[in-house]
Automatic annotation (TrEMBL):
<feature type="binding site">
    <location>
        <position position="175"/>
    </location>
    <ligand>
        <name>L-citrulline</name>
    </ligand>
</feature>
<keyword id="KW-0547">Nucleotide-binding</keyword>
<dbReference type="InterPro" id="IPR024074">
    <property type="entry name" value="AS_cat/multimer_dom_body"/>
</dbReference>
<dbReference type="InterPro" id="IPR001518">
    <property type="entry name" value="Arginosuc_synth"/>
</dbReference>
<keyword id="KW-0055">Arginine biosynthesis</keyword>
<dbReference type="GO" id="GO:0000053">
    <property type="term" value="P:argininosuccinate metabolic process"/>
</dbReference>
<dbReference type="GO" id="GO:0005737">
    <property type="term" value="C:cytoplasm"/>
</dbReference>
<feature type="domain" description="Arginosuccinate synthase C-terminal">
    <location>
        <begin position="174"/>
        <end position="390"/>
    </location>
</feature>
<dbReference type="InterPro" id="IPR018223">
    <property type="entry name" value="Arginosuc_synth_CS"/>
</dbReference>
<feature type="binding site">
    <location>
        <position position="259"/>
    </location>
    <ligand>
        <name>L-citrulline</name>
    </ligand>
</feature>
<dbReference type="GO" id="GO:0000050">
    <property type="term" value="P:urea cycle"/>
</dbReference>
<dbReference type="Pfam" id="PF20979">
    <property type="entry name" value="Arginosuc_syn_C"/>
</dbReference>
<feature type="binding site">
    <location>
        <position position="124"/>
    </location>
    <ligand>
        <name>L-aspartate</name>
    </ligand>
</feature>
<keyword id="KW-0436">Ligase</keyword>
<feature type="binding site">
    <location>
        <position position="117"/>
    </location>
    <ligand>
        <name>ATP</name>
    </ligand>
</feature>
<dbReference type="GO" id="GO:0004055">
    <property type="term" value="F:argininosuccinate synthase activity"/>
</dbReference>
<feature type="domain" description="Arginosuccinate synthase-like N-terminal">
    <location>
        <begin position="4"/>
        <end position="165"/>
    </location>
</feature>
Amino acid sequence: MKNRVVLAYSGGLDTSVAIPYLGKMLDADVVAVSLDLGQGGEDMDSVRQRALDCGAVEAVVVDAKDEFAEDYCLPTVKANGMYMKQYPLVSAISRPLIVNHLVQAAKEHGGTHVAHGCTGKGNDQVRFEVGFMDTAPELEIVAPARDYAWTRDKAIAFAEEVKLPIEQSEKSPFSIDQNVWGRAVETGFLEDLWNPPTKDLYSYTEDPSLSAAPDELIISFEAGRPVAIDGRKVTMLQAIEELNRRAGAQGIGRLDMVEDRLVGIKSREVYEAPGAIALITAHEALEDVTLERELARYKRLVEARWSEEVYDGLWFGPLKRSLDAFIESTQEHVTGDIRMVLHAGKITVNGRRSSHSLYDFNLATYDTGDTFDQTLAKGFVQLHGLSSKIANRRDREAR
């Protein structure tokens, strides 16, 4: 029986060449699978036709924008998911969705193998392959760029040899991955940490120094889910898209960082995620009002661990599932409105209201009518600092 490879197909040179190459190396038919995650650019019908023209026996195109927003971006908002306190997991949360659709295509089309275009240096090989191992361990995994020492030069030469109907454009200095949640740029002159990003690097955001007049808006949440902007009901996808436009116009969401990759190397990455940063900022501000202190403190620890699990490709792992359950339980009262101003690359929260608020004006006020019993504070302070006081007394006497 002939092998059948299900390939994660982007439509670019590398994955286009992979279709006949995998067919040759594995004596296989290739089924190409492409997902629309709101990345924009080329029409998906054109991508599908290119896969067929390059020799795929089937080409599956999936409009997964709403699924991505609901099942992957929304949990990231609820978790305030930020790897290394900065990166909103733009690429990391898209990989398990792609895995699910490749596995589904393998079941529908009799796939024996799954394939991706990642190299051996990056995180995505882990995200794809651990995802396949977790959800469909019977499928064999192949990665041409890694397993066959595939390079762009080799890809171009092979394309010429087999006369593939694709344009072999000049090599871009950057590696770019994008979806509706954000945009990731690496390599090229960015590999020198002293080189600043140039203006042409950005696509989702305007130069913050040239931003328009301040944009004030209100984001409404119900149980941690954004449900309206300025009183207009929105789906999760619509919320991301609108905030990409409005926050992007103000230059919000740009990030230039040196990231700790899972494989053990440090990598310089430039990100744009205006909608993601705006939503997470608003969600965090509402949690400040609605989560009890000890729960909020512990959730911040969980958020960091959740982000690491997702970044490390363990979306389907048992710890991630358990953390999901904890995070979801914290969202019951995260309902209300956040007003904020977007301007010149910054977000300023200037209003908060919630029927579930834990803010008590009569306890917080310093004016007449204050209900806080200050006579209790003296004893509280003495007991709170007692253990530290005793330890410091011991240390002084030991000198």
